[in-house]
Amino acid sequence: MKLNMDSVNGRGSMAKAAIGEALVDDIPAYRGGMLDMHMLERAFIALLNHKAWVAGAVLACLSAGLIATFLMTPLYTSTSRIEISPQAPVETDVEGAREKTLTNEIAFFNTQYSLLASRSLAQRTVRAGNLLNDKEFLAVYDLSEGQEGDGVPNSAQRAHMAERAEKILLEAVTIAPVRQSSLVDVSFSTPSPALSTKLTNLWVQQFVAANLDRRFAATSDARKFLEQRIIALRRNLEDSERELITYATTNGIITIEGKVDPISGRTVSERTLASADVEQVSEALGAARDARIAAESQLNSSTAAADSWSNNAVSGLRQRRAELSADVARLSAIFGDDYPELVSKKEQLATLNRSIEIETRRAQGINRETYAAAVKRERDLTTELDKITGKYRDQQRRSIEYAILQREVDTNRQLYDGLLQRYKEIGAAGVGTNNIAVVDTATPTRKPSSPNLLLNLAVALIAGLALAAAIVFLLEQLDQSIRDPSEVTDRFGLPLLGSIPKVDADDFEELLLDKKSSVYEAYLAAQTNLTFLTPHGAPRSFLLTSTRPAEGKSSSALSLASVFCQTNKKVILIDADIRSPSLNEMLGIENKIGLSNYLTGVENVSSLIAKSGEFGFDYMLAGPMPPNAAELFSSSRLGQLIDLLLEEYDHVILDAPPVLGLADGPLLARAVEGVMFTIDASSNSSRAIKSALNRLRQTGAQIYGALVTKVGRRNEIYGYGYGYGYGYGYGYGADKQQGNGDS
């Protein structure tokens, strides 16, 4: 039966997509990528894999630290503690002391720390302590070398010694501020306890003295400067005041009162005599205008009733007239016009009317006189206001220059008063108290502060761990092995069909036959994945190959054949590696006849097939090694054999030779449905694997996927370890002497 390769290739493409979808949930990289892995556990596994390098790096650094500790000169440290109050030196600005903000305090303390470690302070200490003549100091630091024969250094040598002494002091001093306080620790570390104490106390004393010198110099300079400025400002103030008074006298500007701004100290307004006159006349004119309007209103009234009613005499007469009018009206209604009492009442009423008319004319005359007087007063006040207003306007024009002179007087007075007050403050305070105080003086120590054995060993240990980490990282980067079986998809474009654990060779057969073992479970998973490769399930004919020998393909071929048999499938396993057969060694039989016999012309196929009672599958050994293996595989007999076997068997599995270096693998791949490529997890030959896959693809072979073997402890971090307690010494087919080697 001739196999249709086009249909096989089409089914293979569908199978590849199906197996990729089926296995995506089994690959940890798809579930969350590398970020989901436990980085600490991964690092721990890497350290275990390179524990020799780690131990070597740590031991080397510890040894170096130990040797350096014993070779170092012991140093004794003496410490003195001082307090620095955050107050600035005497200031000469007229705006007062600088605001003590947090930023200014930080700058102040940083300045003090810099002064404590300054070269000028080292020079003062060398001079004050006479260190160039101190025998102990010269002996400890070997400063007496290079002197002339009489032992007295010349001027050039002494200058050089002073420079060296300053550098020594700056290197030996340590400035350590105490956190969240105004305290500072000053320490010296020298080979002599007494010398350390002497230098520390001398350094602190000179710092205090230098601070006092700076404060005294600042105070003296400030007093001299202020004296000069006060004399000049007093002269300017006197001149400006004299000029202001002269100008006011010349222009008739008489100031009654002035107002001064309490904040700025400047004269903001002044009340002169002219302005006071304008105010008074304006107020009088307003009152006269109101009186004139009131008189005019009374005068223009038609009956002047409003003003008449205010006259008591007229009011009484009108009241009397009202009473008589009522009596006349009453009597007229009862009696006739000739009634005597009625006639008398009418005469009285006529007399009252004449009296009221006389009084009314007299009141109107008074209103006219009052209005005339109001008009005259208003006119007179208006004339007076126009007169003094003109005078005031003329004075206002001249007051511009007056205001300029007044501002100059105010400015000079402010400057003079400010500097005079500052001068008094400096005179009263003098140098003042020093803002630096010694809290603790230095005392000699009995134990050296360095070298510190424990500290040096700790530093050496940290350095060793860092070096070990760098080495492990470099080795891990150089390691191109398959640490994560799912990497075969990214590296080589192959679906992962299964990952096989690394077990001991002596236990392999027992584990394969034990359905509860990790080996059986791994191959069962691979067999399950194969069932998704084609529409009819697992491919009926396929081969297993690898890049190089000893990658576990022969053991995997035997294992898959055994697992297929456990699923009630009739399987035949063919050892197609006729150059280096291994199936006979794994089964423990002699390789007398087999595939090579059929390829060379033997027609009786059944005579070449035997059954494994232990594993349950049929097998065909490789047979004697022919001289022309590639030519035999190039013939059509191999395809005919597979077609013939497929009529009787469910699956035909070929154990093919490695791809690189031989032409057998690509030739065999053309006779089967597809290829299962076996990759050793510990292999570093990624380039060789890609080359082998390219050779297979060039022949048109359908590569179903990769089977990663020898997955051991180093792969456990990726979820592919089989922690069942089995050994790690077995490599599938690593050596034929192990009984189940691989070609």
Report on this model:
The chain is of the alpha/beta class and 743 residues long. Among the domains are: 5-29 and 484-736, P-loop containing nucleotide triphosphate hydrolases (Rossmann fold); 52-72 and 451-476; 267-429. The chain contains 24 helices and 14 strands. The chain has helices at 5-23, 28-32, 39-49, 51-71, 102-116, 119-129, 135-140, 155-172, 193-250, 273-299, 305-308, 312-334, 340-429, 453-478, 487-492, 508-513, 518-530, 553-566, 583-587, 595-599, 629-634, 637-646, 664-669, 686-698, and strands at 76-84, 173-177, 183-190, 255-260, 267-272, 436-440, 496-501, 541-546, 571-575, 610-611, 618-620, 651-655, 674-680, 703-711. The strands form three sheets. The chain has an eight-stranded mixed β-sheet, with helices on both faces. A four-stranded antiparallel β-sheet has the order 2-3-1-6. Helix 9 crosses helix 13 (340-429) and helix 10 (273-299) packs antiparallel against helix 13.
